[in-house]
Structures are given as C-alpha cells and as structure tokens.
Amino acid sequence: MRDVAIVGVSQTKFGELWDKSFRDLVVEAGVEAIHDANMTGEDIDAMYIGNMSGGLFVGQEHIGALIAEHSGLAPIPATRVEAACASGGLALRQAIMAVASGYYDKVMAAGVEKMTDVVDATPAIAAAADREWEAQQGVTFPSLYAMMARRHMHEYGTTREQIAGFAVLGHKNGALNPKAQFQREISVDAVLNSTKVASPLNILDCSPVSDGAAAVVVCPAEDAKKYSDTPIYVKASTQASDTIALHSRKSLTTIESTINASRKAYDIAGIEAKDVDVAEVHDCFSINGLLAIEDLGFFKKGEGGQAIEDGLIERDGQVAVNPSGGLKARGHPLGATGIAQAAEITWQLRGDADKRQVDGAEIGLTQNIGGTGGTVAVHVLSRNK
Ligand code: COA
Questions:
Q1: N or C, which end of the chain is more exposed by having fewer CB within 10 Å?
Q2: Does the Cβ of 141 fall within 6 Å of ligand 1?
Q3: Per-residue model confidence as pLDDT tens digits over 322-349
C-alpha cells in the first residue's frame, strides 16, 4: 500500500443557488481543486463522485458520465458513490484506496447535491431511512434524531440548552466562513424559541436544505510536493456499517458505527482521540454533533452536553469542532458534505483558514454519517508525513 496525500481542495459556496445547475456546481468545484493542485484536467486519472439522490432531487441519474462529460474529463473513468449523507466521505475513501493500491496516481473525489429544486426535500431525504419500517410509517430524519435527543436527555440529564449550544457554535464559526450558507450568529434562546420541527428539535437545531459541491485531489504521498507546498497526509480512511433502522439498535444514544470507524482510524493512524486538534463532525441536527464528540472519544458518554456548555469544543478549546460552521451553518448538500469536511480540515492544517483558523492544528479528523449511522466514514489527516 502507498501513503496518500491531499494536494488540491475546493468548495463552492453552499446555499440556495438558484442560478447554478447541478452540473455547474460540480464542475466549478472540480476545476478549482485541479487548479489548487497545480494540475490540469489531463493529469487526472479517475474520478469518484459522492451524490445521494440526483434522481429524486433533480431527476438525474448516471451522474458519473454526466460529470465526466461536462468537466471535459471524459474518457477517464467516473464513478458515482452513494451512501446517503455519507456519499462524499465514501467517494473520498474510494479515491484514497485507488491511489493507495497503486491502481491510479492522481484521483479526484467530488461531492454534489442540488436539493432546492424540489418543493419538499423531506421525502427525498427520508429515502435514506429504512423505507418499509421507518419512512413508510411517516418517520422523517428530524423525528429520528428527535428521539435520540429525548433519550440522551433522559439517560444523561443533558439539557435542552446544551444541545442547542452545538447549533450556536456552528453559527458562530459559520459567521467567519464566506462559503457558509448562514453567516450569522444565533443565541441559545433563539434556538429554543425557533419554530418546532420535531420536539425537542426546532428549526435552528437542523441543518438546512442546501445546494453545493466540493472536490479534493489525491496522489501518492511521495509525489505530493510536486503539486503542493503544503500537502496534507491521509493517516487513516475507515468506514463502518450499522443497522439502517434506528429501532434495531442496542442504544439510541450511541452511534456504534462512529465508534467502530474512529477506533479503527486511531489505530491505523497511531493516535488517540486526545491527539486530534480539529474535527469536522456530522451535525445534521444539533444532537448529532453532541453524539459525535462522545462517540469519537473526545468526551465520555453523557458528558458531551457539559463539554459544549464549558466551551471545550470552541476554536480555542480542548478540541476545535466544526470551525467551518458544520452542517448547521456551512450547509448540508448531502453528497458534498464529506468532501467539504475534508477540504476544511485541509485548509486548517495548511494554516489557510483565515479568520476561522485553529492555531497550531496538526492533526485533523472528519466524521461523515449516512442516515442515523447506518454508514460512517472517518478520515484522519495530518500536516506531517
Ligand atoms: N437553519 C436556519 N434557518 C433555516 C433553516 C435551518 N435549518 N431552514 C430554513 N431556514 C430559514 C430559511 O433560510 C428561511 O429564511 P428566510 O425566510 O429569511 O429566507 C426560513 O427559515 C424558512 O425557510 P424554509 O425553506 O421555508 O424552511 P422549511 O420549513 O421548508 O425547512 C427544515 C426547514 C428544518 C424542515 C429544513 O431545513 C430541513 O428539512 N432540514 C433538515 C435537512 C435534513 O434532514 N438533512 C439530512 C439530515 S440526515
């Protein structure tokens, strides 16, 4: 196996992008990532594209060929990767494995979703749940995560304010990110008084419906300095699965696939959870950010709420979590999220994150979840070889 490095990254602005089509978005992200890697399109050997549901959101399938043609990269192989909201994380993993194995040398991993073209995105998103046992009974993702929030409050005494604190942190960081969908701060009171979605979660606990794309270029670590003065090294790329339906789990307050993927990643990277300086975690709902910081081992189970309240996950805290604004404020174009997380960690480790820079960050982590944890991808990245 060869070591792999990230040498180019990009992200389009996330938001309601009425003036850009699905294909415009992914081509914009891809071209920028290739330029960032000081390459041309002719250098790219293959492409993996994370996309959850082009079919339901814009009536488009056969995404690989579409993007290969419109990026001008045909005839290179272009493969769509789907794992609900973890599609981007898995596309990145495919690209890394392709380079590590020696099959290809320079590979692009992109992610894209255009969600705002449908009148109601909720039924399309619900396709990531168990159709027969969850979605068909009327269950939606806000309601699934609401049950997890209720249970966490019941088991650990976590307060509603502590859960809201994760959304407040996202908006605080997002206010410094020019590519974020929401660039304004909010308060705990604003979260608690915002429109109810699925009790106890309100609209300001939810990630939004978003359009956007992101892209990453990877190559063998030994070649990385040819393309970038500051390559970022992939120390681990892992993936774990769990039951797709929530009712089949042993616990509603632990995402086992996060534990499995992250422990394997720490083992491969030769680190412990406490070594992570900066992390982008999958806060599709505020409660999921809280679960992430516990399941990743940053804090003990049941202590995530207190950690949020005590400021331990702020940019200058024990571990800086979601400096980009996370899914809550940066936005959550489903298939693009896992790639955008890797782009943010790359900027942080390069020292290129401007006003939201985490000082001295050397080791970063991304956690990208599909559904309620049926799929989890974890990546550990480092500025040191
Ligand atoms: N956070 C902050 N503001 C939000 C928001 C959010 N999540 N969602 C919508 N808004 C704002 C909009 O910008 C708009 O503001 P404006 O009037 O100033 O333009 C206003 O609220 C109404 O927006 P609208 O699009 O009508 O909201 P909605 O009621 O249709 O959608 C949700 C709100 C919460 C239902 C939707 O954002 C949602 O489904 N989020 C979850 C997405 C999801 O499940 N992702 C996958 C996770 S696994």
A1: N
A2: yes
A3: 999 999 999 999 999 999 999 999 999 9
